[in-house]
From TrEMBL:
Pfam families, sorted: YCII
Name this polypeptide is given: YCII-related domain-containing protein
Domain YCII-related: 12-83
UniProt similarity note: Belongs to the YciI family.
Source organism per UniProt: Nocardioides marmorisolisilvae
Highest taxon above the source species: Bacteria
């Protein structure tokens, strides 16, 4: 199983500080989606960055790039058009609790 990092880029700077009710609803659905990926064992970790640019970061496991892209493209923050995704292959070399 390969590891992938994906970013979701917000539509504007200071997104967290200026989020609209509709965007907040989409991000709530996005959080539920990530929770399901964690429960299924697909998601390794995820969270937002803070400051002026609020990029979301997720590390997932998938068989190949097509499978990883399918996971990214199923994210409600992406399917809604709210966030712009970016996918990159990676290797989790150091992870607390992992031998």
């Amino acid at each position: 199983m390969a590891e992938w990092i994906y970013f979701i880029h917000p539509p504007r700077e200071k997104f967290v500080a200026t989020i609209t009710p509709e965007e907040a609803e989409t991000m709530s659905i996005h959080r539920d989606h990530l929770a399901a990926l964690l429960e299924s064992g697909t998601l390794i970790m995820a969270g937002p960055t803070f400051g002026d640019i609020n990029t979301g970061v997720a590390v997932i496991e998938a068989e190949d790039e097509d499978a990883a892209m399918a996971i990214v493209n199923s994210d409600p923050a992406v399917t809604s058009g709210l966030m712009r995704p970016e996918l990159r292959p990676m290797r989790v070399t150091f992870l607390r609790g992992r031998d």
